[in-house]
Each structure stands twice: as structure tokens, then as C-alpha cells.
User: Fold this.
Amino acid sequence: MRKKVAFICVKNSCRSQMAEGFAKFYGADVIEAYSAGTEISGKIDPNAILVMQQIGIDISNQYSKSIDSLPKQLDIVITMGCGVNCPYIPCQHIEDWGLDDPAGKPLEEYVRIRNQIEKKVKELIERIKNGEFDTRKAFFSTNAE
Assistant:
């Protein structure tokens, strides 16, 4: 069964959009991917679209969404390193990836962040495939502490 994964950022215009694109591209068999923002921008950063197109992933049809648009039941929430407190989002697991925001910086910075996101999404997919987020395992590991 696929895990519902939400990638959260402030404006949902760059990092979280790239993460959603990677998750759909590499992990469609194990991830039902979403992205959202706490203060949506209303558009996707053109440089985010460009650097993803450079590696053959098209995120131009994605759009900036509010966290209110997320499904009520999520398995995993990933915050991108926004430096803001996200409202409580019910899920089984949450983690922060601590990624810099490339907005307004040279294209090379977008490429650097894109490559970090790609690596982290691939690692997340492997963790899901290895059963790290199985409800039963999470329940027992939480109670063992």
C-alpha cells in the first residue's frame, strides 16, 4: 500500500514542489505525493521548473497549494527547512530536511538544492520500501522508548 507523503514549505513554490515531482517520478509505486505551503505563493518558481526540466521531470502542471488542501490522513510529513512552525498536521511520522531556500539566488543554487532533494526523496523511497514506516513497526518502536 502506498504511503501518503506531504512535502511542506512556506510558499509551496520551489523545494516542496521539486520534492513532489521527484516522489511522483521515482516513487509512484510506494508514494502518493502531495506538496503544500503555509503561505502559498500562487505560482511555481520558474527556476524550479527549469532545473527539474533539465533532468527530464516536468513539474510545470503542478500548482501552489495550501496545507488546507492536504488529505486529512497522511502517513509522512516532510518539512523542507522553512524556518517556520507548521500548524499541526496529523501523521504517523514527521521530519525536517533542513534545506536552504534557493529563491532569488543564482541558478546554480537551484541545481544544488534540486540535487539534495533528489537524494533525500530516493532515500525516503528506500526507507518506505524497507518498511521503516509500517504502522506496526512505528507503534512498537514508539512504545519501546
